[in-house]
Amino acid sequence: MTDIEVAVVGAGVAGLTTAYELGKAGREVRVFEAAGVVGGRMTTLREDGFLIDTCAEQMAERGYRETWRLLAELGIGGDAAPRIGRGIAMWRGRARSGVAETRGLLTGAGLSLRARLAGVRAMRGEFDTERPEISRLGGRTVADFAAPHHPDLLNYLLQPVVSGFFGWDPARSAAAPLLALLTSVGPPPTWRAYRDGMDTFARALAEKADVSTGFRVDQVVDDGPVARIISGTREISAKAVVLAVPAPVAAELHPGHGSAFLAACSFTPVVKAHLLLDRPLGGPDYAVIVPTAENGTVATIIFDHLKHPGRAPAGRGLVTVMAHPHAVPELLAATDEDVVTRLTGAAERLVPGLRAATRRALVRRVRHAAPEATPRALALRSAFEAELGRGVVDYAGDWVFLSPCSEAAVRSGVRAARRLTERIACPVQEERAG
Question: Where in this chain does the entry annotate a coiled-coil region (predicted)?
Answer without folding.
Answer: none
